[in-house]
Automatic annotation (TrEMBL):
Residues 475-489 have a biased composition (Basic residues). Residues 698-713 have a biased composition (Basic and acidic residues). It comes from the Eukaryota. One of its GO terms (cellular component) is nucleus. This is Anaphase-promoting complex subunit 4. One of its GO terms (molecular function) is DNA binding. The keyword Magnesium does not apply. It comes from Eruca vesicaria subsp. sativa. Transmembrane segments: none annotated. One of its GO terms (biological process) is cell division. Residues 654-663 have a biased composition (Polar residues). Signal peptide: none annotated. It is found in: Nucleus. Keywords: Cell cycle, Cell division, DNA-binding, Mitosis, Nucleus, Transcription, Transcription regulation, Ubl conjugation pathway. The chain holds residues 753 to 1465 of 1465 of the full protein.
Length: 713
DNA sequence: TCACTGCATGGCT
DNA sequence: AAGCCATGCAGTG
């Protein structure tokens, strides 16, 4: 907390400075072209506050061509030669901050040379041909400036291990509020702006974390409290265990990063999604200071005053994307270190048959190759078993933005047996620098959440509104229906499976028939099925529904309360269902929709006993029975008519012959000959459809729907 | 008829 | 208000 308030203090000062620095001139001091009345300025390098430097066309062109420093900073200090090719790089300048990498042994290397040594990974900035966005790196470099300004002299002697920062970040990431202290805290903080205060802070962080986040420490075993962290011979050296840049678990030791061109072409992390200011920023300061030494390549000489602290809510990993659970094989004891990059909870779309997994934009831009064409690039990812998958990493242009997704994930997802609600975890293996795709089943997340809840430590990350899913409140209102669906999805995303489970059980109760209804028993293939003619509509009790058949729920979608039924369908959707058929409604579990993409996995067998198949069989049998019954009735009816007409003719004849004997004929009329034995008062429709009468239409429609939706074949 | 594709839409952050 | 992103949907083969 001491750290927090120190930083907040700096933030205030810097905000003031930033206001002063605003102008309408070209950001390049050497140019300072006045475009106050112009609008044709262009974005240049990214500023520390997340904005971009406004440059005139000339300067922007120079920047985009990577010649800005050559042109404008030729006389400035800080030029260093690439250790490999000797190319001069203007180090220590924000403009070129992304154009080089710091070497373990000291010195720098231009990206062109670095790319030859890097096959993959966000930390070691690869070349434009296979670039990774790492604007976070810049952020943390930037943040180091503020950190030093506040606690420049502090360097805890025994806290060089990155685990401290990881612990701290984990502690922070799990919901501890640093940015909203009580006044008492604040007073304490200000009074302890000392090294002891910092020790307390770090010690506290470690203490809490070690008590409550064993997993997070295990997450990076090499960097754990008891590990022997590699000592950096150079403060700027690459430090594998702390290599990953972000995440509540991760230390933010980061390295170059984006070239100017890349940055402009690929906007990188706006920060809003991944980072929140108050948490990672301070800790990243701490981290930078602890691990990178006093100097930073961004010991900035530019006029940029803004800091990441200027924008509340910025630089924290959004929980749903930050890796949360240790990956099983994260640390290969001998060599490899697995660095979680980000994770994604699979949506229905992601896990569906379309085979496209939407990626969080910020994460995609931060950790995956830069792509400039919508066709994207193939991306090879290994799963946890070492199997290699190649996806197409692409994007769509969407509302002046991009929507990133992986294409062709279905086989992989099926291989991992993942469903909507499960989580895929993108990680990187060092030093191989392979991308690997781990996963966490929703059921695992549940236990994880429970565990952390016990620790009372993840509340702000995982706690969601405990509003029960009120089916009634969603009736007929698309918006509320959607809201509930979203809410439900969020519950899944946040791992609140326990609530979902409860709701599911409640939903099971919804589809149970009312006790006052007696089912008709139908035996199909030796199995007895109960068929209710007036089963309840989910969320709308006591309303005729046809049957519990899921297809009938689809039928109801055609009626007034379709939205509520959608909701019910969504709620009832089997976790094993894959995706929706394009023409089926949300949560449809018809035989079409539950089938996996064609050819990719076995379809339901003829003797499959799943609910849907049972339903299909039952409906088929019902249809058949009724069809036969109707046919029989028609035949009988026809026979009766013929008989009647025959009798009528006979009667006429008799009447003609014996006009006085009417009473006898009348009697004959009411006592048909035994040959026919047909009740002339028989009304096929009425008999067949009673009881319940009110449901006639529903059932008819239901049958039709069954025929179309389930397509039994 | 259905899988695939790419864009559009709209709730949500 | 802007942007993200889950999902819908129309066009195409």
């Amino acid at each position: 907390r001491a750290l927090v308030y120190i930083l907040e203090e700096d933030e205030d000062e810097e905000e003031e400075e930033e206001e002063v620095s605003e102008d309408k001139f070209c950001f390049n001091r050497e140019c300072h072209h006045d475009f106050t009345r112009e609008s044709n300025y262009r974005p240049g390098w990214r500023l520390r506050n997340g904005d971009f430097a406004d440059l005139c066309n000339r300067c922007a062109s120079a920047y985009e061509q990577g010649k800005f420093c050559e042109i404008f900073h030729q006389r400035a200090s800080g030029w260093t030669c690439c250790e490999s090719c000797g190319k001069r790089i203007h180090c220590g300048c924000i403009v070129s901050a992304s154009a080089f990498m710091l070497l373990d042994a000291g010195g720098i290397e231009c990206l062109t040379c670095a790319r030859k040594k890097v096959s993959m990974g966000p930390n070691l900035r690869p070349p434009p041909s296979f670039p990774f966005q790492s604007p976070i790196a810049e952020k943390f470099k930037d943040l180091s400036i503020e950190w030093r300004s506040s606690i420049r002299s502090y360097r805890p002697p025994n806290l060089s291990s990155p685990s401290i920062l990881q612990c701290a970040l984990q502690y922070r990431g799990d919901g501890y509020e640093f940015n909203q202290p009580t006044s008492r805290d604040k007073a304490t903080a200000y009074s302890t702006e000392t090294q002891r205060g910092m020790n307390d802070l770090v010690g506290k962080l470690m203490s809490v974390n070690s008590n409550n986040h064993t997993s997070s420490i295990l997450y990076n075993q090499k960097a754990g409290p008891n590990c022997k962290a590699p000592t950096c011979p150079n403060g700027n050296a690459y430090h594998p265990p702390i290599s990953f840049k972000e995440g509540p678990l991760g230390a933010q030791r980061v390295f170059p990063v984006t070239t100017p061109t890349e940055t402009t072409g690929h906007l990188g992390l706006g920060g809003r999604y991944l980072w929140h200011k108050a948490n990672s920023s301070q800790l990243s300061h701490l981290h930078n200071d602890l691990n990178s030494g006093a100097d930073s390549p961004l010991e900035n000489k530019s006029g940029n005053i803004g800091t990441h602290l200027d924008t509340p809510g910025k630089y924290q990993v959004v929980p749903r994307y930050s890796p949360k659970v240790p990956y099983k094989d994260q640390v290969n004891e001998s060599v490899s270190v697995v660095t979680p990059l980000f994770e994604k909870i699979l949506s229905v779309s992601d896990a569906g048959r379309v085979g496209r997994m939407v990626l969080p934009k910020k994460c995609a831009e931060a950790f995956l190759p830069q792509i400039s064409h919508t066709d994207g690039v193939p991306l090879t990812i290994h799963d946890s078993r070492g199997k290699e998958w190649t996806f197409q990493f692409r994007f769509w242009v969407n509302s002046n933005s991009r929507m990133y997704f992986l294409e062709g994930v279905t086989p992989c997802i099926q291989s991992m047996q993942l469903q909507a609600g499960d989580t895929v975890i993108f990680s990187r293996v060092d030093p191989e620098r392979k991308l690997i795709l781990g996963f966490r089943k929703a059921s695992d997340a549940q236990s994880s959440v429970q565990e952390t809840d016990l620790n009372n430590n993840r509340e702000s990350c995982t706690k969601v509104d405990a509003e029960p899913i009120d089916m009634h409140s969603t009736m007929g209102k698309k918006k509320s229906s959607m809201t509930t669906t979203r809410s439900k999805r969020q519950k899944i995303e946040k791992g609140d499976i326990s609530e979902m489970k409860l709701t599911w059980e409640e939903a099971q109760g919804f589809i149970l028939p009312p006790p006052n209804l007696t089912p008709s028993i139908i035996t199909i293939e030796g199995i007895e099925f109960e068929e209710y003619e007036d089963a309840p509509i989910i969320g709308k009790p006591n309303t005729g529904f046809g049957s519990t058949c899921s297809a009938n729920r689809n039928l109801l979608a055609e009626q007034d309360d379709e939205e509520a039924k959608d909701e019910a369908e969504g709620l009832l959707m089997s976790p094993n269902s894959t995706s929706k058929h394009p023409r089926h409604r949300n949560g449809c579990v018809c035989i079409v929709c539950i089938q996996s993409p064609s050819g990719t996995s076995p379809k339901h067998g003829r003797r499959c006993s799943c609910t849907v198949c049972d339903t299909v069989r039952r409906r088929r049998a019902t249809l058949l029975l009724r069809k036969n019954k109707k046919k029989q009735i028609e035949i009988e009816s026809k026979a009766h008519k013929e008989l009647e007409s025959l009798n009528s003719d006979e009667e006429l004849d008799q009447s003609a012959n014996n006009s006085g004997n009417t009473s006898k004929n009348h009697e004959q009329r009411h006592v048909p000959p035994s040959k026919a034995q047909i009740d002339l008062n028989f009304q096929p429709e009425k008999d067949e459809e009673s009881p319940p009468r009110s449901n006639t239409m529903t059932k008819d429609k239901s049958l039709r729907h069954d025929e179309t939706s389930f397509n039994p074949s």
